[in-house]
């Protein structure tokens, strides 16, 4: 059993390994999410033994994958007297709880949203021949799409805001549950008998996909999905929190001009990537797949040269390369497994991943939306 002092020393060593202040660790965060890769995990376990005298195995971070589980293990509380009586370990109890079904009411325990769930971006949902629902990126702000130019007279665009906008501390639910929080709002706005058009930027693509699952399971039909620079989770990892911190430090995420990203945006983005880290989608049945799937990709990276950028990041992480480096013409990038049999089309806009709805680049996005959406 390690003392509190030894646990603190251990967390300091881990923090040094991943360039993160241990005071920023949250018990529910995984080491993988925080950026502790397999090689660095093994080396860090060795440091804990040599520098603190802790008898830990090389696989300690995989056996105790979250900060809370790891601390409990060091303190000898991985198996409490209460859990022994139940014939299970603390860790197994945690793992089992993650597998329990979500509440029948997805709003159970969720605080009242501080902003409307949806906002009409352009057009009139009552008279439009088609509605397009756009789900937000990690910022959670559907209002970010408000910079789009006028796209079609007969098409209405609806932006979805996160229920946890301005209260990211309460955002601890799964991507799938987030979709359940939105689906009734989408149904409420969609004229009966029309097929759905769902789109999303970055993590918004995951939300759109999960809402499509819910709608088709209820007998609805999806006509089209629009995936805007949304890296398929089957191929790309969740963005490590360390990278979020580095991008924020350099003003590369959520910043507009000289104006830094607001704290609420960074907080919501961090909660989003924690949720994405636990997300692994399964395919839509082939008979439920949208008729058409449109991909809109950017080709620019966040920096021209990673080595000269001053960013302290691991470029072996695919999603980090996806954000930072210039790209060629990306295609389906794994989404074909989740959306088999659809007709795919591809579009390439200006800017980098975080500039998509910023002035000028929003005009480029608008032009491509005009091409792929027909009234």
Automatic annotation (TrEMBL):
Biased composition (Polar residues): 79-99
Domain Thioesterase: 132-370
Superkingdom of this protein's organism: Eukaryota
Region (Disordered): 75-109
One Pfam family cited in the UniProt record for this chain: PP-binding
Domain Carrier span(s) in chain numbering: 11-74
The protein, known as: Thioesterase domain-containing protein
Species: Friedmanniomyces endolithicus
Lineage summary: Eukaryota, Fungi, Dikarya, Ascomycota, Pezizomycotina
């Amino acid at each position: 059993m390690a003392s509190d002092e030894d646990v603190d020393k251990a967390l300091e060593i881990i923090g040094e390994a991943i360039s993160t202040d241990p005071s920023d660790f949250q018990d529910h965060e995984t080491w993988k999410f925080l950026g502790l890769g397999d090689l660095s995990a093994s080396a860090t376990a060795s440091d804990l033994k040599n520098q603190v005298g802790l008898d830990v195995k090389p696989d300690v971070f995989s056996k105790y994958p979250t900060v809370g589980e790891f601390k409990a293990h060091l303190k000898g509380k991985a198996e409490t007297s209460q859990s022994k009586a139940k014939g299970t370990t603390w860790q197994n109890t945690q793992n089992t709880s993650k597998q329990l079904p979500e509440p029948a009411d997805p709003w159970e325990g969720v605080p009242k949203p501080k902003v409307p769930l949806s906002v009409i971006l352009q057009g009139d949902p009552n008279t439009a021949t088609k509605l397009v629902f756009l789900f937000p990126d990690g910022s959670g702000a559907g209002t970010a799409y408000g910079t789009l130019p006028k796209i079609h007279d007969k098409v209405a665009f609806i932006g979805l805001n996160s229920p946890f906008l301005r209260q990211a501390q309460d955002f601890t639910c799964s991507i799938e549950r987030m979709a359940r929080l939105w689906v009734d709002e989408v149904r409420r706005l969609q004229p009966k008998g029309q097929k759905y058009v769902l789109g999303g930027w970055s993590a918004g693509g995951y939300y759109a996909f999960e809402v499509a699952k819910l709608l088709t399971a209820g007998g609805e039909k999806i006509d089209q999905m629009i995936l805007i620079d949304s890296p398929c989770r089957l191929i790309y990892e969740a963005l490590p929190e360390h990278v979020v911190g580095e991008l924020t430090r350099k003003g590369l995420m959520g910043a507009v001009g000289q104006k830094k990203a607001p704290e609420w945006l960074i907080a919501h983005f961090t909660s989003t990537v924690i949720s994405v880290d636990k997300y692994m989608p399964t395919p839509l049945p082939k008979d439920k797949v949208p008729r058409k799937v449109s991909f809109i990709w950017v080709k620019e990276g966040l920096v021209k040269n990673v080595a000269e950028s001053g960013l302290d990041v691991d470029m072996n992480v695919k999603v980090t390369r996806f954000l930072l480096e210039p790209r060629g013409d990306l295609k389906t990038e794994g989404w074909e497994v989740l959306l088999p049999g659809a007709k795919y089309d591809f579009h390439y806009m200006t800017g980098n991943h975080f500039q998509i709805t910023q002035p000028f680049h929003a005009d480029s996005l608008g032009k491509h939306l005009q091409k792929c959406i027909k009234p």
